[in-house]
Amino acid sequence: MPFPTPPPRIDVIIPAYNEARSIAQVIAEIPVGLVREVVVVDNNSSDNTAAVARAAGATVVRETRPGYGHACLAGMAHIFGKPAAELPDIIVFLDGDHSDYPEEMPALLAPILGGEADMVIGSRALGQRERGAMLPQQLFGNWLATKLLRWLYGARYTDLGPFRAIRAGALQRLNMQDKTYGWTVEMQLKAAKLGLRAVEVPVRYRRRIGVSKVSGTVKGTLGAGYKILWTIFKYR
C-alpha cells in the first residue's frame, strides 16, 4: 500500500572506503528535503573520508573491519538502534564513489512510495552507462549472477547494482549476514525466497572517482566473483 501522510522517513546508507575525493559530491546531489538522515560508514579509510562526509552534513559511523557488507551492517545497526518511534520507513543504499546519480533517488523510491514494491534495484543494465563505467569482467559477472538467480530462485533481475531502496521492515526480515562482496546478491536472493515484491528501475551510471577496490584489481575481481557465486549456491 502507498505510504500515508506525513511523508515517509527515508534514510540513506553510504559505505565508503577512501572516498574523500567524491563523498561530498555524492551527499550534495541527494535531493534536498527527500532524506531524513545520510549515514556514511567510514570503512577504516586511511584518508579524511570521515571529516569530509561530516562537513557535508552526514552522520559518520566508523567500521574498522574491512568489507562492503561490514559497512552496510554497521549503517543498519546505527539506524535500527534508534527508538521505535524514530525508525525509518525506507532505507536507500548508495555508493560513495560518485558512480551513481543520487538525483535519481525519487525514481528509485517511486515504486515503494506508490505501494507497488518492497524493494527496488537501480539497474545499470536497463539504464545509460558512461563508456568505461563498467569493465568487461563486471558485465560478465553481472550477467552470470542474474542468470543464476533466475534459474535457481525464479528471481528476474538484470543487475546487482548497489543503488537500491527497500522498506525498512522488509530489510529487517532478510536477516542480512554477508560481510563482504556477497551483500547485494544476498539481499536479492533472500527477497525472492521471502516473496518480497522486487522491481527494477533504469538508472544511469558513470565512471567512478578514483580506482575501484573491486573491479580495479585482479584480486578484487576474483574475490568478488567467487563470493557472489558462493553466496548464490549457499542459500540454494
Assess the beta-strand content as a share of residues.
Answer: 5-15%
3D shape? globular
Count up the helices.
Answer: 8
N to C succession of SSEs: EHEHEHEHEHEHHEH
Overall number of strands: 7
CATH architecture: Alpha-Beta Complex
Q: Kindly report the average pLDDT value.
A: 93
Structural class: alpha/beta
Main β-sheet description: 7 strands, mixed
Biggest sheet: strands side by side, in what order?
3-2-1-4-6-5-7
**How far apart are the first and last residues' alpha carbons, in Å?**
30 Å
Q: CATH first level: which class?
A: Alpha Beta
- What is the total number of structural domains? 1
List low-pLDDT spans.
Answer: none
CATH superfamily: Spore Coat Polysaccharide Biosynthesis Protein SpsA, Chain A
- Report the radius of gyration as a whole number of Å: 16 Å
CATH topological fold name = Spore Coat Polysaccharide Biosynthesis Protein SpsA, Chain A
Helical fraction: 25-40%
What does this protein look like?
The protein is an alpha/beta fold and 236 residues long. The protein has a single domain, classed as Spore Coat Polysaccharide Biosynthesis Protein SpsA, Chain A (Alpha-Beta Complex). Helix content is 38%, strand content 15%. It is built from eight helices and seven strands. The chain has helices at 23-28, 49-55, 68-80, 105-113, 136-153, 168-174, 183-194, 218-235; strands spanning 10-16, 37-42, 59-62, 90-93, 119-123, 164-167, 198-202. Strands 3-2-1-4-6-5-7 form a seven-stranded mixed sheet, sandwiched between helices. The longest helix has 18 residues, at 136-153. It is globular, with a radius of gyration of 16 Å. The chain starts with 9 loop residues before the first strand and ends with a helix. The model has no long low-confidence stretch (mean pLDDT 93).
